[in-house]
Amino acid sequence: MSTILATPQTITRRWHLIDANDQIVGRLAVLIANILRGKHRPEYTPHIDSGEFVIVVNAEKVRFTGKKLEAKTYHWYTRYPGGLKTATARDWMATHPDRILRMAVQRMVPRNILGRQMMTKLKIYAGTTHPHQAQEPVKFELPATL
Prior knowledge:
Elements: E1 15-19, H1 25-37, E2 53-57, H2 68-71, E3 73-77, E4 84-88, H3 89-95, H4 97-106, H5 113-119, E5 122-124, E6 138-139
Parallel strand pairs: 1-2, 1-6, 2-5
Antiparallel strand pairs: 3-4
């Protein structure tokens, strides 16, 4: 009996389509991060990018639990003096709804070159349409407990 280790030559990448309509942000981000990392596959290898592509549609219809829509804040620094910016989740939902899900997933993948490579396989769209029909994405069935 031997352990199977994935190599870049043996990995076949599929495209998954996820509908984020009425899904909770954090729980959805966990599923997306696991698909991007490849943890759902039996040949998962931590040091190899064995994940698959993920297309998320209806990102503008995700929801938060509790009072997070008002209380959750996002901070970033512009690299200028006094350039600390802050926005609430409600502000980002109105202007850039895809950023909320992207930031949640980005914080769940490794913080190194491998994680940045995994994030390039994530495609998020606010509406219902996407330009990846040629890749023939398979609709990913979300668990009932989500």
